[in-house]
């Protein structure tokens, strides 16, 4: 039972992180109609900037703040230099151009910090375990990432649903020509939205640093999972991104933890040994295929 | 005929490819034989992708899957001691066609960004499947114990013979592809890309046509995979990595979407550029990436577009 709760928390932690990435990606898609493969690169940039700034300043918090600002700036620069001209293009052009950006960023990071993986650790005040209830002890750092992720989700909901900026974002998503005609600087709005999406991706990256490893190409692995998230949730919908992220996070984590023992009880352990891990790593893609086959618009489609 | 300039370019290109082995022999640079054989194998894969992406408007982001399936079909049979080339390549084509039918049956119901994503998801599924099967080397991959055997016909261990076989297959596929897109079947595919409601209105349901094109493209990709594993003599799940699918798409776009010569030009330019940059600096992707971005932004009609004013 303890194990189940622990794995469920791991699933929640992965889900929350996926949400931070998915929120930016789905907003950019919903509003600008842009497929951005380079979103994973911003995740990587966030992680590397955090490593660099934390070393430079010697402070975890200062490193985080500077890395977030850095990711915001990098995101806005990418939007202004490369992506702006792509809004009117078809998805194919967007996929290819942002694919080119991935190559660029991976190599740039490899030049600046080397190709080998960097192992980082959580700050000392977050490195212990927390006793939750009973015998369940859970790493404080993972618990903190869950809390931060949920807080950001709440904040994001507030900004999108309750503020003027959020209103513009929603209006821009449903009819950009009309919003522009009403005198809103839509180009600036796009740049700002893209920048904040990049900062969220950077946040996910720097929080992921101590849990996984920081290395060139770390963005792609997670990027494809994030695509699964937004397709399952419904492209362009923040609510969908949240639900999709939690579902994918849970399915992936629980699948990896329990599919093998579950299969072993049905078939022979030998079969489970081979089929379990294979099936577990395919599970979220299977989920996505089923969702797309049954509900092509995703589980929580954005209202048109 | 509006394709005439393009046709001429294609003939010149194929003649140049045919001249590579004697030139490589003359210059004592067997490396170029390998390089251009590789280019032609990728040209075959790009050509098959162009059928669905270029002519059919189906943006498949998982075409490298068929390279992988084809390669695994050859590798797995060889692993169990079956080295008969006919059998291996038939399985490569057949298995790829079956996989393409399964992927296509689900994905073609969707369109736009969903189609891109679902094809990507399926390719990731097979990629992870390849990684997790320890029997065939997992993510380390495995060596091909012996190249495909065609006793009495051709010896793939002879690099020049292998080269000309690949060239012959490329030419055959170029011809087949050309015939296919200009047939009634190809017209329906292209019509469905240009305007789906009108295609329905004149009485065609695009779905079976698209699925058939998808399966044909997959089968051709599978043969490219069988060739590729004989080229590298090594088999890894990286064959179906999603970046490989991205490269194939780039070859099609760079060469010119929905053109006969495009995929060959695209494959040649991309792989030569990679080779050139890699010889120049270790950080060649830093240059290649922005070049790709620029080519998408400013070079929309592709290389084959240079040769044809009228671009359908």
Task: Provide a brief overview of the structure.
The complex is a heterodimer of chains A (304) and B (312). Chain A is mainly alpha-helical and 304 residues long. Chain A is built from eleven helices and two strands.
Written description of the protein model:
The complex is a heterodimer of chains A (304) and B (312). Chain A is mainly α and 304 residues long. Chain A has one domain. Chain A is built from eleven helices and two strands; from the N terminus they run ααααββααααααα. A two-stranded antiparallel ribbon of chain A has the order 1-2. In chain A, a hairpin with a 5-residue loop joins β1 and β2 (137-139). Chain B is mostly helical and 312 residues long. Chain B has one domain (4-307). Chain B contains twelve helices and two strands. Chain B has a two-stranded antiparallel ribbon. In chain B, α2 packs antiparallel against α9. The radius of gyration of chain B is 19 Å and the shape is globular. Chain B starts with a helix and ends in a 14-residue tail after the last helix. The mean pLDDT of chain B is 89. Chains A and B meet through α4, α9 and α11 of A and α5, α10 and α12 of B.
> What is the CA-based Rg of chain A, rounded?
20 Å
Task: Describe the largest sheet of chain A.
Answer: 2 strands, antiparallel
The tally of structural domains of chain B comes to 1
Low-confidence stretches of chain A: none
Mean pLDDT of chain B: 89
Average pLDDT across residues of chain A?
Answer: 87
Give me the Rg of chain B, rounded: 19 Å
Helical run tally of chain B? 12
Keywords:
heterodimer; A: 304 residues; mainly alpha; two-stranded antiparallel ribbon; 11 helices; globular; B: 312 residues; two-stranded antiparallel sheet; 12 helices; 2 strands; 71% helix
């Amino acid at each position: 039972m303890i194990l189940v709760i622990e794995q469920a928390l791991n699933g929640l932690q992965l889900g929350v992180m996926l949400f931070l990435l998915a929120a930016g990606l789905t907003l950019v898609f919903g509003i600008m109609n842009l497929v951005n493969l380079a979103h994973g690169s911003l995740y990587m940039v966030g992680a590397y900037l955090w490593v660099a700034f934390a070393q430079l300043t010697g402070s975890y918090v200062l490193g985080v703040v500077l890395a977030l600002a850095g990711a915001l700036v990098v995101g806005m620069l990418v939007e202004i230099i490369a992506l702006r001209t792509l809004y009117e293009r078809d998805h194919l052009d967007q996929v290819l151009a942002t694919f080119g950006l991935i190559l660029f960023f991976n190599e740039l990071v490899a030049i600046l910090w080397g190709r080998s993986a960097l192992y980082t650790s959580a700050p000392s005040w977050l490195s212990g375990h927390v006793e939750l209830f009973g015998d369940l002890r859970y790493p404080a750092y993972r618990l903190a990432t869950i809390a931060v992720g949920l807080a950001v989700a709440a904040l994001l909901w507030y900004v999108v649903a309750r503020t003027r900026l959020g209103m513009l974002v929603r209006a821009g998503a449903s009819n950009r020509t009309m919003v522009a005609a009403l005198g809103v600087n839509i180009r600036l709005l796009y740049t700002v939205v893209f920048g904040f999406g990049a900062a969220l991706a950077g946040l996910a990256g720097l929080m992921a640093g101590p849990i996984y490893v920081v290395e060139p190409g770390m963005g792609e692995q997670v990027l494809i999972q994030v695509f699964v998230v937004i397709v399952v949730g419904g492209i362009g919908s923040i609510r969908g991104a949240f639900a999709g992220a939690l579902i994918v996070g849970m399915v992936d984590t629980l699948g990896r933890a329990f599919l093998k023992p579950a299969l072993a009880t049905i078939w022979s352990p030998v079969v489970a040994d081979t089929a379990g891990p294979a099936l577990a790593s395919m599970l979220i893609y299977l989920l996505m295929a089923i969702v797309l086959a049954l509900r092509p618009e995703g589980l929580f489609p954005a209202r048109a | 005929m509006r394709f005439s300039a393009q046709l001429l370019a294609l003939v010149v290109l194929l003649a140049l490819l045919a001249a590579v082995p004697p030139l490589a022999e003359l210059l004592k640079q067997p490396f170029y034989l390998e390089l251009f054989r590789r280019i032609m194998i990728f040209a075959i894969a790009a050509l098959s992708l162009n059928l669905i992406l270029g002519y059919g408007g189906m943006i498949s982001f998982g075409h490298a899957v068929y390279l992988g399936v084809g390669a695994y079909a050859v590798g797995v049979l060889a692993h169990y001691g079956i080295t008969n080339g006919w059998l291996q390549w038939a399985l490569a084509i057949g298995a790829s066609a079956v996989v393409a039918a399964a992927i296509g049956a689900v994905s073609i119901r969707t369109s736009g960004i969903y189609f891109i994503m679902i094809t990507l998801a399926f390719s990731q599924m097979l990629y992870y499947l390849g990684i997790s099967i320890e029997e065939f080397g997992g993510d380390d991959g495995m060596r091909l114990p012996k190249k495909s055997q065609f006793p009495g016909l051709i010896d793939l261990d002879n690099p020049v013979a292998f080269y000309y076989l690949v060239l012959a297959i490329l030419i055959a596929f170029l011809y087949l592809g050309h015939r296919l897109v200009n047939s009634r079947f190809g017209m329906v595919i292209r019509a469905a890309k240009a305007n789906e409601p009108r295609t329905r209105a004149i009485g065609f349901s695009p779905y079976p046509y698209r699925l058939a094109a998808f399966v044909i493209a997959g089968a051709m990709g599978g043969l490219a995979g069988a060739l590729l594993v004989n080229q590298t003599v090594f088999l890894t799940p990286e064959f179906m990595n999603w970046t490989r699918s991205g490269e194939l798409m780039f070859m099609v776009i760079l060469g010119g979407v929905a053109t006969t010569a495009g995929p060959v030009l695209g494959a040649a330019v991309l792989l030569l550029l990679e080779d050139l940059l890699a010889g120049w600096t270790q950080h060649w992707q830093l240059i290649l990436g922005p070049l790709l971005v620029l080519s998408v932004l400013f070079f929309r009609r592709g290389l084959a577009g240079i040769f044809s004013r009228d671009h359908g």
